[in-house]
Amino acid sequence: MFNEGKDMTPDVLIKILGDYHHIAVVGLSAKPHRPSRDVSAYMQEAGYAIIPINPLYAGQQILGQRVYATLADAAAAGEQIEIVNVFRRPEQTPPFADEAAGVGAKALWLQLGIANEETKRRAQATGLLYVENRCIKVEHARLFGGLSLI
Where does the UniProt annotation place the signal sequence (predicted)? Predict the structure, then answer.
């Protein structure tokens, strides 16, 4: 059962999406039909800088941006990382809490359908703002883009 995000108040979501504009997307796919690509393209169009993280495509480009194998590689190349948006299976997410904190990120966001208690514990222990089981695109549209969920 996924955490329904009761501790992820609109104020926290507004802070993350309003204050931070550099998003490292872990698991960003080069395939146009993949959710990671659609979500990232939307966020890029909304004015956010996208930093693709995917070892399968390292050194290539996705959405016109250089792809890095790891968060540490992106940070070492001078990329500013504020939000780490993760498109990976839940059991693969705990290390990303430590890595996000290690590169100076402010928030760790696990996409819709992704939740992990260990990841949450690690993220909160390092002081990261934490969101799980929510789509960053949907939340942005709802809070800033006029999406009506009537």
Answer: none
